[in-house]
Design a protein that fits this description.
CATH architecture of the largest domain: 3-Layer(aba) Sandwich
Number of strands: 11
CATH topology of the largest domain: Rossmann fold
Structural class: alpha/beta
Radius of gyration: 19 Å
Distance between the termini: 24 Å
Order of helices and strands: HHEHEHEHEEEHHEHEEEHHE
Largest sheet: 5 strands, parallel
CATH class of the largest domain: Alpha Beta
Length: 309
């Protein structure tokens, strides 16, 4: 990968020309192809892994093969009180702000060692953390969080960003897509081994479309359990495993995955497709992100900018 075209787009955009999520994915892959990604080493035997939104989902992916307890900002204190075996807290937060300082400080009050995994050298939660892993990121719109969490996942899976980029350009871009703007309802079907991505995809739809565009995201096994009792004119998008059952044939789109794909590939390919859906619809996110961040800054008592450098 000689030129970082999409990465340069991400570095130079403004509120007047916010890129869609698919461009963000390619930019992140270009970035990660040229830098070293940290390796996370955690000394705890039974960690409490805490995050908000997609950080929580990322934590479940990073530690799915560990004897870990998972929590969000809503129930982490309950876990600390009720599970004595917890011997340390892993806090995942791209910004290291908002709820993160409260979580870290409270964990310290429970006399727990805190490890912060973040993308910000100036994370507010650093003050209450015993060790910090800072992952690289690119400039992105607030909430896109593509390079942030993808970098952390790559730190675990060690997939090749260059190979993921090539697969998207050589395989996904060659697929003749239906008129994505015709649909306002989507059903994303993922392989069972990637069940941990479901929360991330649901959150991304919420952030980009609110309730303007409907979606469901399930594994190819769970889809069998009465999720299609009520039919609707929705597009079924299957990843990795071709859907030959659900929805009318004209409303099925198959997106392949490379052999031996892991979570970073799954995230990149699925986010890329959500970016294509975003580009086919009214730019709800772009129209509202400035006013939203202004309002939410007051809620958190911290300045939250619509563009995260």
């Amino acid at each position: 990968m000689k030129e970082k075209i999409d990465y340069e787009k991400m570095q130079s955009f403004t509120l007047k020309n916010i890129p869609d999520l698919d461009v963000c994915v390619l930019g992140a892959l270009e970035l990660f192809s040229s830098i070293k990604i940290p390796k996370i080493e955690i000394p705890y035997k039974k960690p409490l892994v805490v995050g908000s939104g997609n950080a929580e989902a990322t934590g479940r992916i990073l530690f799915e093969d560990k004897d870990a307890v998972f929590a969000s900002e809503s129930n982490f204190e309950e876990k600390l009180k009720g599970i004595r075996a917890i011997d340390g807290v892993v806090l995942i937060s791209a910004s290291g702000g908002k709820h993160a300082p409260i979580i870290a400080k409270t964990s310290r009050e429970f006399r727990k060692n805190v490890t912060l995994i973040t993308n910000s050298q100036n994370a507010l939660a650093k003050e209450y953390s015993d060790r910090v892993f800072v992952f690289p990121k690119q400039k992105e719109p607030y909430t896109y969080n593509t390079s942030t969490y993808m970098g952390m996942i790559l730190g675990k899976t060690h997939e090749s960003p260059g190979k993921i980029y090539y697969f998207i350009k050589s395989r996904i871009d060659k697929i003749k897509l239906p008129n994505l703007g015709r649909y306002d309802k989507y059903y994303l079907i993922v392989p069972p081994k990637f069940s941990g991505i479901i929360r991330m995809l649901n959150v991304k739809f919420i952030e980009l479309f609110g309730r303007r565009v409907a979606r469901d995201v399930e594994t190819s096994e769970y889809v069998k359990h009465a999720t299609t009792v009520v039919p609707s004119d929705e597009l079924f998008i299957s990843f990795g495993e071709e859907n030959k059952t659900w929805g009318d044939k004209k409303n099925r789109l198959h997106i392949p995955l490379p052999e031996n794909a892991d979570y970073a590939t799954m995230m990149a390919v699925s986010y890329y497709m959500i970016g294509k859906i975003q580009g086919a619809h009214t730019p709800y996110f772009k129209k509202n992100i400035r006013s939203y961040t202004k309002s939410v800054s007051k809620i958190f008592g911290q300045e939250i900018k619509p563009i995260v450098e």
